[in-house]
Design goal:
disordered N terminus
């Protein structure tokens, strides 16, 4: 009986830490982007500039204004590591492989974007696509973790992100490259932040069902 309770306590702790890491990573991404935009010294609009231009201005080879570049890269690398660690804790505690793999790949994409700024071709584009695809799929797949109405919220965020991803070129004339990209990426930030809060609360529940 003691071993059973100890095992449940360990699982609850891992789930709580996993949720906390996701919530923090969502906060870091959102505030890191805002801070980078605020300190950007060239002309920058959310409509006409990609988010990653904070770290590598266009056209390629243009001097990147600092400290925006450092802020963006550190934001992506740190949040990527936190998401990857969270995915590992989630898998160990909940054994939901189909939900944990996209979450891990989403974190890997964030880490890669931070390591390889936009002027590092083709790696930046590859990792950016990993973020968008894995994030959209991960948000949908998280229905295997969450229950009640919240699963439909995450499914909606994932579908929304993927719809904007696959219709991106058609939306650019209306929304600009930056606006269309943000409608792909920002739903994913809300997803990991919401999932983090859900998992943290899940781990804090006194009753645990294996």
């Amino acid at each position: 009986m003691n071993n059973y309770r100890t095992g449940n306590h360990t699982k609850r702790s891992m789930v709580s830490y996993s949720g906390l890491l996701l919530f923090i990573s969502g906060f870091i991404i959102f505030m890191g982007i805002i801070t980078g935009e605020m300190l950007y010294t060239l002309d920058f609009t959310t409509r006409d500039n990609y988010i990653s231009e904070l770290a590598a201005a266009l056209p390629l080879g243009t001097l990147t204004p600092q400290p925006s570049g450092i802020i963006f890269n550190l934001t992506m690398m740190l949040s990527g590591l936190l998401v990857m660690l969270s995915s590992i804790l989630t898998f160990i505690s909940l054994k939901k492989l189909l939900a944990s793999i996209p979450l891990f790949l989403f974190g890997l994409g964030l880490l890669g974007v931070g390591i390889f700024p936009g002027d590092v071709v083709p790696w930046h584009g590859i990792f950016a696509n990993v973020i968008f695809l894995a994030g959209g799929i991960g948000a949908i797949a998280s229905f295997r973790i969450v229950g009640d109405q919240m699963r439909y919220v995450f499914i909606f965020l994932g579908v929304l992100s993927l719809v904007f991803l696959f219709t991106y070129k058609h939306l650019v004339p209306l929304m600009g490259v930056g606006g269309a990209e943000r409608w792909v990426f920002y739903p994913l930030i809300f997803w990991i932040t919401g999932l983090g809060g859900y998992l943290f609360g899940m781990g804090m529940q006194p009753k645990w069902n294996d």
